[in-house]
Write a structure and sequence with these properties.
With about 210 residues, the protein is mainly α. It contains 7 helices and 2 strands; from the N terminus they run αααααααββ. Strands 1-2 form a two-stranded antiparallel sheet. The radius of gyration is 24 Å and the shape is flat.
Length: about 210
C-alpha cells in the first residue's frame, strides 16, 4: 500500500478498512467526495428515501407472506396486494421512525443535560419531553442540518486527504455546509412578492 492509499485509509472506519483496502485511493476519495456532496445538498431527501425503501421492502415481504397465508382464495392477486400494501405501510413507518428517532435523541439528550444542572427527576423529564416534541415538530429542519454537517465533516476529510491545507479545508467544508442547509431548507426557492400598479385601474396588485 502506497503513501496516498495509507493516508486515505486513515479516514475510513476501522471495520471497513480491510474491505476497502483493494480499492484505489483515487476512486475511494472520489466516492467519498460524491457521498459528502449528496449529504450536504440532498441528505434529508436521501435519508427519507432510504428509510422508506429499506423498511418498505421488509414490509412488502411481511405483507406478501401474510397475504399468502390468509388470502389463499385470492391467489396471486392477493399476494400482490399484500406486497404493495406492506411496502407502502412499511415505507411510511420507516419515515415515521426517522422522525421519532430524532425526537428521542433530542429529548434524551436534553434530559441528560438538564440532569447535570438540576436535581430531581421532574424538571429534566419535562425538559426531555418538551425537546422530544420539538424534535418531532422540527425534524425536517433538524434532519437537513444534521446531514449537511455530517457531509461537511466528510468533505473536510476528503480535502485534507487530497493534501489541501486543513484551515482552507475547514473553511470550504463550512461554506459547503451553510450552502447545503440553505438549499435543503429551500430558502433559495422562496419568491419575494412585490406590489405593482396595474395599468388599467391604478390599483396595486401582487406579482411574483
Amino acid at each position: 500500500m502506497g503513501a496516498s492509499e495509507a493516508k486515505t485509509m486513515m479516514y475510513i472506519p476501522h471495520q471497513l478498512a480491510p474491505l476497502l483496502s483493494p480499492v484505489p485511493a483515487t476512486a475511494l476519495l472520489l466516492a467519498m467526495l460524491v457521498v459528502s456532496l449528496i449529504l450536504i445538498f440532498a441528505g434529508r431527501t436521501v435519508v427519507k428515501v432510504i428509510a422508506f425503501l429499506a423498511v418498505g421492502l421488509v414490509g412488502a415481504s411481511i405483507g406478501g407472506a401474510l397475504a399468502a397465508q390468509y388470502l389463499v382464495g385470492s391467489g396471486s392477486l392477493g399476494v400482490l396486494l399484500g406486497v404493495i400494501l406492506g411496502f407502502v405501510v412499511g415505507g411510511l413507518f420507516g419515515v415515521v421512525a426517522v422522525m421519532l428517532g430524532i425526537g428521542v435523541v433530542l429529548g434524551y439528550g436534553a434530559y441528560l443535560l438538564t440532569q447535570q444542572f438540576v436535581s430531581g427527576e421532574i424538571i429534566p423529564l419535562v425538559v426531555g419531553v418538551v425537546f422530544f416534541v420539538l424534535g418531532i415538530a422540527l425534524y425536517d429542519s433538524i434532519l437537513g442540518l444534521v446531514t449537511a454537517v455530517a457531509g461537511a465533516f466528510l468533505l473536510f476529510d476528503v480535502l485534507t486527504a487530497y493534501g489541501m491545507d486543513p484551515t482552507l479545508s475547514l473553511v470550504l467544508a463550512g461554506a459547503a455546509a451553510l450552502a447545503g442547509i440553505w438549499v435543503q431548507e429551500g430558502l433559495g426557492q422562496k419568491k419575494v412578492t412585490q406590489p405593482t400598479v396595474s395599468n388599467a385601474g391604478g390599483q396595486p396588485s401582487a406579482s411574483t
